[in-house]
Specification:
Blueprint lengths: L2 H18 L8 H11 L7 E13 H4 L3 H5 L4 H13 L4 E4 L2 E5 L4 E4 L2 E10 L35 E20 L5 E23 L5 E13 L2 E6 L3 E8 L6 E13 L2
Antiparallel strand pairs: 1-2, 1-3, 1-11, 4-6, 5-6, 6-7, 7-8, 7-9, 10-11
């Protein structure tokens, strides 16, 4: 009977030793490696990257002859100079020129927008209703003059009850990656431009008087491109050509340039 406590203590010591040697223990090599991986800081960026997107709209008969030069890496700089000269002479429209400055591997966003708020749900117009006549007086009591029944007030408009907001203007989202030599930049880029074109009227109801109730809704136009590609450091590239809704027969081009400089 005296051997039982000694045997029990031995079992406890063996269990404690086995627990201390489990892989989850902080002292094990695997746990130390995991802790080192968590504590390890990501590499510091070595490059600053500036990304520009030139957005220009021009009558298509004047822009079409420039497209071959804009597509040629050796001629694109001269073609861009022609575009900028046309903007200065009021022969073209500068629709946007967003710029993002960020570090290698970091996402950046640039916006020059106006928040346009517009209604999306409406309460229908209220129709007129007749007011009930007054209750007759008791027998023998003098009868008061009875006014003619009048219609309750009504409205001939739809009342907005819910709204949404749309960002109008140019924006640029970009995430650059620079190779080890610094001569090639990989871009994940989303340039876009949203424009409020006009308002459209829609008939939604007809009142009892026969009047048609209308609501107005905005009409937007969006020029947008989502791409990922490689571009030489400092080089320009034509990334999109859009036919605009307004002005008619106008083309819009998006021209990107990315420049990487070492962080000192």
């Amino acid at each position: 009977m005296k051997l039982l406590p000694t045997f029990a203590c031995s079992l406890l010591l063996l269990s404690a030793a086995a627990y201390s040697a489990t892989p989850d223990s902080p002292e094990t090599p695997a746990a130390a490696d995991r802790k080192a991986a968590v504590d390890k800081k990501p590499p510091e960026p070595k490059w600053n990257v500036r990304t520009d997107v030139l957005m220009v709209a021009m009558p298509q008969e004047k822009l079409l002859p420039l497209l071959p030069g804009l597509r040629d890496p050796k001629k694109i700089d001269a073609a861009v100079e022609q575009l900028l000269t046309a903007v200065q002479h009021k022969e073209a429209i500068l629709t946007g020129y967003p710029t993002v400055l960020t570090t290698d591997g970091a996402r950046g966003v640039s916006e020059a927008i106006v928040e346009k708020r517009y209604p999306t749900e409406f309460e229908p117009p209220r129709t007129p209703q007749t007011v009930a006549a007054p209750v007759p007086a008791p027998a023998g009591a003098p009868t008061p003059p009875v006014a003619a029944a009048e219609p309750a007030p009504s409205n001939d408009v739809a009342i907005p009850t819910a709204f949404e907001t749309r960002n109008v203007g140019p924006s640029l989202e970009v995430e650059p990656q620079v190779n080890a030599k610094g001569d090639i930049i990989y871009l994940n880029i989303i340039p876009q431009r949203v424009e409020l074109l006009d308002f459209d009227s829609y008939a939604v109801a007809r009142t009892s008087s026969g009047k048609i109730v209308k609501i107005e809704q905005p009409r937007f136009f969006t020029s947008k491109v989502t791409i990922g590609f490689a571009i030489p450091n400092g080089q320009r590239a034509l990334i999109a050509v859009h036919l605009l809704a307004k002005p008619e027969n106008y083309l819009e081009v998006f021209i990107v340039q990315a420049i990487a400089t070492p962080i000192k």
